[in-house]
Design a protein that fits this description.
Blueprint lengths: L1 H6 L2 H13 L6 H8 L39 H18 L2 H17 L31 H18 L2 H17 L15 E2 L26 H10 L2 H4 E3 L4 E3 L5 E7 L2 E9 L6 E6 L5 E8 L8 E4 L2 E2 L3 E3 L2 E8 L4 E5 L4 E4 L11 E6 L2 E6 H4 L6 E3 L6 E4 L8 E9 L20 E9 L11 E2 L2 E3 L1
Parallel strand pairs: 3-7, 16-21
Antiparallel strand pairs: 1-20, 2-3, 4-5, 5-6, 6-12, 7-11, 8-9, 8-12, 10-11, 13-14, 14-15, 14-21, 15-19, 15-20, 16-18, 17-18, 18-19
Helix pairs in contact: 2-4, 4-5, 4-6, 6-7
Bound molecules: zinc ion.
């Protein structure tokens, strides 16, 4: 579809449509191919999920035609790659049935099967989706590549729908799982991105075989490291969505960009220290005036965004989460955004049993976590009272330049003297006060091996 969009050669569009329309049609291609190969398969000994192309075709999204599918199933990375293509076809061919398929599967994926980190695919076996609201924290898969694929799917949906909801998900995936897939040194990587780790348990319990408590230098199936690299260098495609009706600005990372609008060039520069600082400035520098609409995303996490054009309150219309500003843009024009980054407590849908009674902390697009390096071991004994007030502090050492958060919390101490495993009627030890330090989750595991936890008990 990308080739078709550039060349307008109809064969490319026809081939892409064939791929998505043929998928899941009977007789099943996979059965025919299995017969031809004498009943053998490549993934011998990988368990039932992997050779799912034979028994459970939902693993390869081929159990029925896409037009009849309603849920995000199977291998997570391949699912979002397939949906990225489908959304591209739906937009370019104005195909309402394909658009509806995209909307159904998107909604199932992000409303019931996505982690707060923008991670998808919650089980290690088959690197796959499971069922609605099944989002375990310490056995999560959440492959880095799956969140990159989610960004791609979101980008294509955004091009079609012009709705900030897609940019909200894209930003969540990018600033949390995708960035977190790489160490701050740029040289170590996660394939799997859990929301909670207890390193002492990992070597002994094979349910954690896929979990690494620190990023690896390289790995055998090294899909994620180069995928993160190419996403970072292609980030402009995600920051901006140029459409006929408007230039959409999705998130406000520092950047310089030029766009052709009616044979003229619109040149702009975004400055600020996003996502740490609340103030963003967009300056225009093209010599000619350019009449166009700018659509500025008002992020879901921001309760009271303020936008000014040349020092005066912006006059525009908010449509699907974007502030649309239409005018003759000229050199020297300045848009300023004030996006208050209030520290937000996030609660999960009550059907997410792994987050019941718990709270997560978010500032701007960044999800925060507790780490052993700041808070000691046995993080499950820590809790955050509902009334605790947060303060921001500056990170030091490897976390320099990052905003950390602190609040007064509680810890149930692990008694020095040995206690019985279980006791009747009363807790064995009372909670004591402890200051809790939260760091941006994408920067966890940069200070050696230790425990980590996003969802914290709320006292
Ligand atoms: Zn990968």
């Amino acid at each position: 579809m990308r080739l078709y969009e550039v060349t307008r050669e109809p064969r490319y569009q026809a081939l892409a449509s064939f791929f998505v329309e043929e998928r899941g049609q009977q007789p099943y291609y996979y059965d025919i191919e299995f017969e031809k190969r004498g009943g053998t398969r490549h993934w011998i000994g990988w368990g039932e999920a992997w050779p799912g192309m034979i028994k459970d075709k939902s693993y390869t999204h081929a159990h029925k035609p896409l037009s009849e599918q309603n849920e995000a199933v199977g291998h997570a990375v391949r699912s979002v790659y397939l949906m990225t293509g489908l959304a591209h076809i739906a937009r370019m061919t104005q195909d309402e049935e394909k658009r509806q398929t995209c909307l159904r599967i998107w909604n199932n994926m992000v409303q019931r099967r996505m982690y707060i980190t923008g991670g998808i695919g919650s089980q290690g076996i088959g690197e796959a989706f499971t069922s609605d609201y099944d989002l375990p924290n310490d056995t999560a898969y959440g492959e880095s590549c799956a969140s990159i694929g989610l960004m791609m799917f979101a980008r294509r949906m955004l091009e079609m729908e012009g709705d900030a909801h897609y940019a909200d998900v894209m930003e969540r995936a990018f600033y949390n799982t995708v960035l977190g897939g790489m160490a701050l040194d740029g040289k170590h990587f996660f394939y799997v991105n859990p929301l909670e780790t207890h390193p002492k348990s990992i070597p002994h319990n094979h349910i954690y075989d896929h979990i690494k408590p620190v990023r690896q230098r390289w790995f055998g199936c090294a899909c994620c490291p180069p995928n993160i690299a190419r996403t970072l260098v292609a980030i402009g495609h995600y920051l901006f969505t140029p459409r006929q009706d408007a230039l959409f600005i999705n998130f406000y990372a520092g950047s310089e960009a030029q766009f052709t609008v009616n044979d003229r060039t619109l040149a702009l520069k975004i400055e600020g220290n996003y996502p740490w600082d609340e103030q963003v400035t967009i300056r225009f520098s093209q010599p000619q005036t350019v009449e166009h609409t700018l659509a500025l995303r008002l992020p879901e996490w921001c309760e009271a965004p303020q936008v000014q054009v040349n020092g005066e309150a912006a006059q525009g219309e908010t449509i699907k989460g974007y502030l649309h500003l239409h005018r003759q843009w000229q050199e020297g024009d300045v848009i300023t955004l004030h996006l208050p980054m209030t520290i937000r407590r996030v609660y999960a849908n009550p059907l997410v049993r792994h987050a019941a009674g718990k709270v997560a902390i978010q500032r701007g697009p960044l999800v925060y976590c507790l780490e052993e390096a700041d808070n000691g071991t046995e993080l499950h004994n820590l809790s955050l009272p509902k009334t605790s007030v947060f303060r921001e502090i500056q990170g030091v050492g490897v976390l320099k330049g990052k905003v950390l958060l602190q609040a007064e919390g509680l810890r149930v101490p692990t008694a020095l003297e040995e206690k019985p495993l279980y006791s009747f009627d009363n807790r064995q030890t009372a909670a004591e006060k402890q200051t809790l330090t939260f760091i941006p989750w994408f920067s966890w595991a940069n200070r050696g091996e230790g425990e980590m936890r996003i969802w914290v008990d709320e006292a």
